[in-house]
From TrEMBL:
This is PITH domain-containing protein. GO terms for cellular component: cytoplasm; nucleus. InterPro entries: Galactose-bd-like_sf (IPR008979), PITH1-like (IPR045099), PITH_dom (IPR010400), PITH_dom_sf (IPR037047). It comes from Ustilago trichophora. Residues 12-27 have a biased composition (Basic and acidic residues). Residues 1-30, 203-226 are annotated as: Disordered. Residues 22-204 form the PITH domain. It holds the Pfam family PITH. It comes from the Eukaryota. PROSITE patterns: PITH.
Length: 226
């Protein structure tokens, strides 16, 4: 699949490479929301290794570790549902692509505060396009940069965020998708919520009924931060 890489989205919003020349000493993890992510409740659908979706949310000093890595299983689609321990205001998505360039997502769709009942390959693609809070396009591959990539998010859209759901619909190569690191920057309200006690997650979601969804129903002209 051909890929015309651009360093800015359709709306002209740049992404930034997070290397040492742009980060002051000891400030790389400033506003990192690692401790605000409820990692025990992260739900990942179509992951090859159970728990690998949660494991790519790493501390800042391990951000460049090649493993663990999240790789999709039956096809190149992934859903990652990330709850927070308190309401947050997001400013940045941090991302490091797979070491295998064809595994790089074509785009990343972000949904804010979706009910957990809609986190499935049947329900998520059927949501109307206006339910997509942000779409990130022109995702760099490992050939473009081996550093952490920062995608700015519009804080006005991402205030009072209790959860983020990430939907990767397709990869550049079309067989699998892979991610080495995910993270968020922003501000936490600091008010910790109790996790619901009556929700049972399927530890290894069955993929026998997962047929790859198309791209037409969720096509969007949004760029970075939209």
């Amino acid at each position: 699949m051909s890929h015309n890489h651009s360093h800015s989205g359709p709306c002209g919003h740049d992404h930034h490479h997070d290397d040492d020349s742009h980060v002051k000493p000891d400030e790389g993890d400033q506003d990192l929301l690692y401790s605000s992510i409820d990692r025990d409740r992260i739900l990942t659908l179509n992951e090859t290794v159970p728990g690998s979706g949660a494991s790519i949310f790493k501390p800042w000093d391990r951000r460049l570790d090649p493993l663990p890595e999240l790789v999709s299983d039956a096809d190149d689609q992934l859903i990652i549902h990330i709850p927070f321990t308190s309401s947050v205001k997001l400013s940045t998505l941090l991302f490091r692509p797979s070491p295998n360039p064809p595994f790089t997502p074509e785009s990343i769709k972000l949904y804010k505060n979706l009910p957990e009942s809609s986190i499935s390959f049947d329900d998520l693609p059927s949501l109307t396009p206006n339910k997509i809070t942000t779409t990130l396009n022109s995702i760099p591959t490992i050939s473009d940069t081996s550093q952490i990539i920062s995608f700015p998010l519009a804080p006005v859209k991402w205030s009072n965020t209790d959860s983020v759901t990430i939907f990767i619909e397709s990869s550049l190569g079309g067989d699998h998708s892979g991610i080495q690191f995910l993270g968020f920057k922003g501000k936490s309200s600091g008010y910790t919520r109790q996790a619901p006690q009556n929700i049972v997650y399927e530890s290894a979601p069955q993929l026998k009924d997962h047929s790859k969804v198309g791209t037409d129903s969720l096509s969007s002209a949004h760029g970075f931060g939209h």
